[in-house]
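Re: the request from the purification team.
They wanted to know what the chain is likely to look like in 3D before they choose a buffer screen. I agreed to run a prediction and write the result into the notebook, where they can find it.
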Amino acid sequence: VYHAEKGSISPGGIGKHIDREPGAKHTYRHADPERIHLNENITVNEHCDKALHLAISDRIAEGYCAKNKAGKLKLIRKDAVKYTTHILTGSNEQMKKIEADPDLRKTWISKNLEFVKNEYGEKNIVRFSVHRDEKTMHIHAITVPITEDGRLSAKELLGDRLAMSQRQDRYAEQMKSFGLNRGQKATGIKHESAREYYSRIQEAQETISKN
């Protein structure tokens, strides 16, 4: 299963969820506290070790160079999509088999990282985390949609529905060697629907804002 969405809320809650930040357990209430130590945050570049909101803003400051007609740096629209979220996983049964074999697990993680790098650019990855403390092992990746020519365009990098379907086909091809086959198209995430996941993070973000 591979699912991607444009970031539509503040990255604060998502960052707390992915990083399992102490004191923010309401953002990862499905996690088993006795397995949190098994999670792995992979440093793809220097931004991956920063708080997520800083990682996103720093990557934009580093890579954005779009110019206006006057030749000056073009202002970024307030409603511009500044990050995209990605969840990569598979069926619970098969993921349990992969997780139980240290070498196979390491290879699976490496293949997923290679996929995200190829699709979105290594420099654009600001989070790549493996979660093993929930029902099914999965990966959270966060990317900043900076194009090769320095524009900020989630629309271009994610593409339309057809482009996403083709990307999911490419992902499925990468996962065949692990006994993972492409599920039915447009069915969403199996261990938790995308809508449920982002609704939960939105709820957590609102709770943080009130405190």
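For the purification team: The CA atoms of residues 130 and 139 lie 4 Å apart.
Please add any questions underneath this entry.
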